[in-house]
Amino acid sequence: MDVMNFIQHARMHERHKTILDLYRYGGDRLYAGEPVTQLEHAWQCGRLAEKSGANTALQLASWLHDLGHLWVNSPGTPTLRGEDDRHEAVAADILAPLFGSAVAEPVRLHVQAKRYLVTTNRAYAAKLSQDSTRSLGLQGGVMSSQECASFEAQPYFKDALKLRVWDDLGKKKAWFEDSRDDALMHLEKLMQAAAS
Ligand SMILES: [Fe+2]
Ligand SMILES: [Fe+2]
Q1: DSSP code for 79
Q2: Per-residue pLDDT tens for 105-130?
């Protein structure tokens, strides 16, 4: 390995470690308003994506879609204070230079995907969790037909819709089949595969 390759490899390793550490040290934090921790939610979404046959990029996007919550680290339940932490944009901006659009864009769109599904699917709106319903208003609420059309024009909108369905399903109490170390090792492997 030449020097430039070594430096690039070391930088990539450092960035992956930063993401892993957010889950290692912040993953026990309760997902505000839901019966799961941040790590459990991330793991459940990643597992649902894997079970559905999603490719590596979409599995990783599912794992890391709420990375922005851990990065911003607002205390308590931000939606109860009327606060939108814009976690989808924060996470996408972190992920784009590391893994490219196939990971970053479904993450960036996962809040818009909720707004789209609430607008176009009445059954979806009825099943939305309490915290997701509360944050919906802060995130712009129901979409206009123009907003729906511009969402559908995004290259990764279909992946964002899939991710959103796993996001809503990935809030099950006491569903975590791996040890923390195994879960983080799996995440590390996904990041390595998506970066190469
Ligand atoms: Fe989210
Ligand atoms: Fe989520």
Answers
A1: G
A2: 999 999 999 999 999 998 998 888 88
- How far is the centre of ligand 2, averaged over its atoms, from the C-alpha of 9 (Å)? 30
Q: List all residues 6 or more positions away from 54 whose beta carbon is below 8 Å from its beta carbon.
A: 62, 162
pTM of the model: 0.94
Q: Determine which helix (DSSP H) or strand (DSSP E) holds 59, and give its type and residue range.
A: helix 56-64
Domains observed in the chain: 3-195 (1.10.3210.10)
Of 159, 183, 181, nearest to 61 by C-alpha is: 159
- Phi/psi for 28 (5° steps) reads -80, -10
Of all ligands present, the nearest one to the C-alpha of 111 is 1
* C-alpha separations of 193 from 61, 69, 91, 144, 187 in Å: 13, 24, 19, 38, 10
* Ligand closest in space to the Cα of 165: 2
What is the distance in A from the centroid of ligand 2 to the CA of 3?
39
